[in-house]
């Protein structure tokens, strides 16, 4: 790993960091708002925006390149985050959160495909996994920040919470200026001289693109969007989309309505609900750390299967004893957060490994779209399910969804450990 790779990793991690920040801060902000249907939609609106951002901007990124889109999406995110501080009605919040979601959804395929196409084989999964760690760092920082703002500034601080993402957004935007284009993408567009210049700029005057040319030449396919709808790539879209959806739907519901969920379990005295929510957020981050190592040693497929299996148990326990002691409730939420590190890491590795350069960003965008529309529906339904069926039954629903992720992964998950991008995606 060169200094350039670490710098690119840090730049690319900015998008996931902001995504985690934005999704987590809304969980605290919602407590200070009127918890009616409109604000339930507010919680889901950014996820719906991510659906459209991933779906459309993934393909645009494969057409116009990674570099240009790498900065434009962050400009939009910063501008609309600032505007959140000046809203005076629910529909304005919903609209702005939706647009911010579009910007975040666009960044998923842009940043991950650019990073994957620069990384060495042996470090690829772990480095892509660090993007997920960045997501949880952003979520954890925002959770504690939101908790502090609510404590010292009161319920009216919610509008400033929603605007806080603009600060790290500006910093990340400045860091990304001057990032080189992916040589693999340039070669896929026949821009050979530009690819040579980029490689020499990064690796030195003696560097060549011969190895990249030879690697990319192994794929004879010139792929377009239609390629994703047939054959092996359609199966891979189904696999990545479903396992991603089954992993993030409970996660996003917990983050968006964490305090609400804990209140439903009876944890609502003083600040215990917010503190428990913040601690669970921290454990999600901790759970990713061993998974980074295991994805390269244990392998992608076994890590995914064992994680999904273990993730079912906490939901069953919470469903069985919804009126248990506070410690019991927080323990099982924390256990879920701890063992969910495997799928969380692989959500970023698998889609970037299983598709060729021509459609890598498109595929990542489609997979992100599938996962986020499911997460948006889950986030919208979570408080309604708690009200209609009770929190115990809602936890059983989450267990069933997680079990579906296990079954689909058992049937379709390939092993890509130790393979080059071309070998893994062919």
TrEMBL record:
Q: List where in the cell it is found.
A: Membrane
SUPFAM superfamilies from the UniProt entry: MFS general substrate transporter (SSF103473)
Membrane topology value: Multi-pass membrane protein
Q: Where are the transmembrane segments?
A: 12-33, 39-58, 70-88, 94-116, 128-148, 160-179, 237-262, 274-292, 304-322, 328-350, 362-382, 394-413
One GO cellular component this record assigns the protein to is: membrane
Give residue ranges for domain Major facilitator superfamily (MFS) profile.
1-417
Q: Which UniProt keywords apply?
A: Membrane, Transmembrane, Transmembrane helix
Q: What is its main location?
A: membrane
Q: Which PANTHER family match?
A: PLASTIDIC GLUCOSE TRANSPORTER 4 (PTHR48022:SF2)
**Name of the molecule in the record:** Major facilitator superfamily (MFS) profile domain-containing protein
- Source species of the chain: Oppiella nova
């Amino acid at each position: 790993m060169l200094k350039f790779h670490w710098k690119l990793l840090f730049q690319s991690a900015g998008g996931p960091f902001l995504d985690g920040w934005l999704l987590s801060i809304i969980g605290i902000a919602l407590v200070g708002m009127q918890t009616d249907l409109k604000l339930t939609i507010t919680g889901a609106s950014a996820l719906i925006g991510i659906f459209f951002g991933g779906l459309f901007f993934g393909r645009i990124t494969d057409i116009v390149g990674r570099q240009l889109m790498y900065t434009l999406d962050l400009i939009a995110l910063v501008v609309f985050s600032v505007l959140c501080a000046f809203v005076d009605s629910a529909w304005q919040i919903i609209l702005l959160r939706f647009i911010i979601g579009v910007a975040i959804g666009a960044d998923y395929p842009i940043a991950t495909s650019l990073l994957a196409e620069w990384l060495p084989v042996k470090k690829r999964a772990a480095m892509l996994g660090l993007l997920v760690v960045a997501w949880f760092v952003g979520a954890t920082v925002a959770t504690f920040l939101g908790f502090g703002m609510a404590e010292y500034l009161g319920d009216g601080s919610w509008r400033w919470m929603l605007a806080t993402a603009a600060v790290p957004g500006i910093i990340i935007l400045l860091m990304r200026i001057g990032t080189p284009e992916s040589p693999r993408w340039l070669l896929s567009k026949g821009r050979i001289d530009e690819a040579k210049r980029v490689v020499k700029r990064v690796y030195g005057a003696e560097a060549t693109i011969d190895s990249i040319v030879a690697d990319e030449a192994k794929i004879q396919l010139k792929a377009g969007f239609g390629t994703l709808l047939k054959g092996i790539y359609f199966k891979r879209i189904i696999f990545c989309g479903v396992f991603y959806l089954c992993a993030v739907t409970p996660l996003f519901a917990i983050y968006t309505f964490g305090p609400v969920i804990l209140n439903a379990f009876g944890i609502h005295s003083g600040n215990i609900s917010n503190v428990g929510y913040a601690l669970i957020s921290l454990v999600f981050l901790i759970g990713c750390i061993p998974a980074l190592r295991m994805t390269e040693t244990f392998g992608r497929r076994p890590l995914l299967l064992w994680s999904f299996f273990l993730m079912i148990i906490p939901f069953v326990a919470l469903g069985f004893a919804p009126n248990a002691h506070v410690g019991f409730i927080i323990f099982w939420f924390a256990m879920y957060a701890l063992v969910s590190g495997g799928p969380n890491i692989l959500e970023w590795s698998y889609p970037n490994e299983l598709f060729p350069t021509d459609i890598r960003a498109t595929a990542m965008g489609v997979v992100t779209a599938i996962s986020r529309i499911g997460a948006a529906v889950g986030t919208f339904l979570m408080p309604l399910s708690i009200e209609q069926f009770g929190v115990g039954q809602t936890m059983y629903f989450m267990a069933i969804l997680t079990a579906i992720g296990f079954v689909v992964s058992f049937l379709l998950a390939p092993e890509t450990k130790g393979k080059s991008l071309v070998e893994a995606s062919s």
